[in-house]
Amino acid sequence: MFNATAPEPAATTAAWRLALPHTTAAVPMARALVRAAFAELDAAAESDTAELLTAELVANAVEHTPGGTPIQLVVELLPTGCQIEVHDHDPAPPGGLSGRPDGVVPDPWQEHGRGLLLIRALSSACGHRPTAYGKAVWFTLPGAPDPAPAAAPGVPSPRSPGAES
User: Fold this and answer.
1) Residue 132: which residues within 8 A CB-CB, separation 6 or more?
2) Rounded Cα–Cα distance for residues 20 and 3 (Å)
3) Model-level pTM?
4) Whose CA is closest to 37, among 57, 54, 61, 58?
5) Are 20 and 26 within 8 A, CB to CB?
6) What is the rounded distance in angstroms from the CA atom of residue 60 to the CA atom of residue 142?
7) Distance between CA 125 and CA 142 in Å, rounded?
8) Distance between CA 36 and CA 124 in Å, rounded?
């Protein structure tokens, strides 16, 4: 059963919630929702990074939690960036999200072990919290800076200090 919810009618945010199957098919579905959400609103946050980190969270939920219940994906686009959460029914915190206490770096030749490292490295914040039915693992990304305003037609662009004519 899939349940996609359209953006909520809030003036400053837009949010989507999608129930994903507890299978590897959830990963491309989650990436597609993130891509569609960012395209719909022309979001300022980095959509490629959001897709990558979302895929890591969903893959971890599928691999490391018991099956049988759907995984929930929540995408919230904010004026300051975005927050993405993955909800599962396992209350155990994700290992390695807050960093490894032993300081061990994952082996680059292994297929596993770098997803949470990517989330810590590429997000502006990440964490997990208990929910009534398990936990939510989340990350936030800041919005991209606004590009420099274009000069009006016939008006020269401002020069940087020290630029010569």
Assistant:
1) none
2) 8
3) 0.73
4) 54
5) yes
6) 23
7) 9
8) 22
